[in-house]
């Protein structure tokens, strides 16, 4: 299968490894998705790159594949129907917030048209980060609309693939309240896949093992380190200032701050009834994430180890990356 080229740290790099995830896409392409697949995982773990690669694979399998990145106002239309491309371009000309909502809705509408008006037999819709634009409370309804496309199409078809991704941790609970979608998880990159990305960066750089320990295999964290000339302290400071962590942590009670200090050492300490409100707040801020069971059918690619406290990964809860954990640790030390 052709490997697409994606933007990473202002470089054009080839989609890296994730062979198991690619086999998963081929399987979906050969069988269709019975329900929409909803993939969640840490911010910057590579979901967007994966969807772009998936769209290219599905095109090679004979699909008209529409990929939209709602958050970044981007799309790829693997189709010969020029009217579809024009409608997507027109949607992006709207004011920012309106355009994002319109693009999320249009992704489903144009695939429906490919079936009904243009008689396409194999169609795919791949939607990246739509739930923030439409509202977390409407995430399950959006998934239901994707399911309706599969179950109640405007005309008969051969195969349909529908995939959506999200970094919004709370959307998992909203979607999980119904059985309209199949929830799966994607983690940061496996070590050897991540090494290929690390080696693609030019110039002098720290040893790979140090970079792996600092980023946990997260491509976005790697780009942040590279952007800050490999200065770990600068990368962490930039992250905590961007997230407004000082305000958030100062707003916690002394008891909550003590719980948070424990979670810096072991994230699973928050997996406790008394501490669930704090956990929900951290998940909502995309600092931590609830980890699904390590069963193959729940994961798009390789799951993380069940317990790796060096990288901030517990059995049930994990810091999205070591940078997230270090930023919180640093603010706790300053707040006292």
Characterization of this structure:
The protein has 336 residues and is of the alpha/beta class. The protein has two domains: 5-185, Rossmann fold (3-Layer(aba) Sandwich), CATH 3.40.50; 206-335, no CATH class. It is built from 15 helices and ten strands. It has helices spanning 19-31, 47-60, 82-92, 96-116, 131-134, 139-151, 169-176, 191-200, 208-215, 219-227, 232-243, 245-250, 254-265, 276-284, 322-335, and strands at residues 5-8, 11-14, 37-40, 64-69, 74-78, 122-128, 159-166, 182-185, 288-290, 317-319. Strand 4 and strand 5 (74-78) form a beta hairpin. Helix 11 (232-243) packs across helix 15 (322-335) and helix 13 packs antiparallel against helix 15. The longest helix has 21 residues, at 96-116. The mean pLDDT is 92.
Protein topology:
Layout: E1 5-8, E2 11-14, H1 19-31, E3 37-40, H2 47-60, E4 64-69, E5 74-78, H3 82-92, H4 96-116, E6 122-128, H5 131-134, H6 139-151, E7 159-166, H7 169-176, E8 182-185, H8 191-200, H9 208-215, H10 219-227, H11 232-243, H12 245-250, H13 254-265, H14 276-284, E9 288-290, E10 317-319, H15 322-335
Parallel strand pairs: 3-7, 3-8, 4-6, 6-7
Antiparallel strand pairs: 1-2, 4-5, 9-10
Question: What would the keywords be for this entry?
Answer:
15 helices, 10 strands, globular, 336 residues, alpha/beta, Rossmann fold, six-stranded mixed β-sheet
- Radius of gyration, Cα only, in angstroms? 20 Å
- Overall shape: it is globular
Q: Which structural class should the secondary elements be placed in?
A: alpha/beta
**Overall tally of structural domains:** 2
Q: State the share of residues found in helices, binned by percent.
A: 40-55%
Tally the helices. 15
Low-confidence stretches: none
DSSP strand tally = 10
């Amino acid at each position: 299968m052709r490997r697409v080229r994606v933007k990473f740290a202002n470089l054009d790099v080839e989609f890296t490894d994730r062979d198991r995830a690619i086999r998963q896409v081929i399987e979906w392409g050969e069988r269709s998705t019975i329900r929409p697949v909803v993939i969640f995982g840490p911010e910057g773990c590579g979901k967007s790159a994966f969807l772009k690669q998936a769209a290219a694979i599905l095109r090679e399998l004979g699909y008209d594949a529409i990929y939209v990145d709602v958050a970044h106002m981007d799309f790829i239309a693997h189709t010969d129907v020029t009217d579809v491309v024009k409608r997507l371009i027109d949607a992006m000309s709207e004011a920012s917030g309106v355009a994002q909502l319109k693009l999320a809705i249009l992704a489903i509408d144009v695939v429906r048209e490919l079936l009904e008006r243009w008689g396409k037999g194999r169609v795919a819709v791949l939607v990246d980060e739509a739930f923030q634009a439409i509202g977390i409370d409407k995430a399950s309804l959006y998934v239901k609309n994707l399911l309706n496309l599969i179950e109640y199409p405007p005309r008969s078809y051969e195969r349909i693939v529908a995939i959506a991704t999200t970094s919004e941790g709370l959307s998992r609970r909203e979607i999980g309240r119904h059985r309209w979608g199949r929830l799966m998880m994607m983690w940061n990159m496996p070590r050897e896949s991540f090494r290929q990305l690390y080696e693609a960066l030019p110039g002098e750089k720290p040893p790979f093992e140090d970079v792996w320990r600092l980023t946990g295999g997260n491509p976005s964290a790697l780009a942040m380190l590279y952007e800050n000339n490999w200065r770990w302290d600068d990368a962490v400071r930039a992250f905590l200032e961007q997230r407004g962590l000082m305000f958030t942590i100062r707003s916690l009670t002394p008891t909550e701050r003590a719980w948070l200090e424990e979670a810096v050492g072991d994230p699973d300490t928050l997996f406790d009834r008394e501490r669930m409100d704090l956990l929900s707040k951290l998940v909502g801020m995309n600092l931590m994430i609830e980890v699904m069971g390590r069963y193959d059918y729940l994961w798009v690619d390789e799951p993380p180890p069940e317990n790796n406290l060096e990288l901030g990964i517990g059995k049930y809860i994990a810091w999205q990356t070591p940078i997230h954990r270090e930023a919180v640790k640093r603010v706790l030390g300053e707040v006292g």
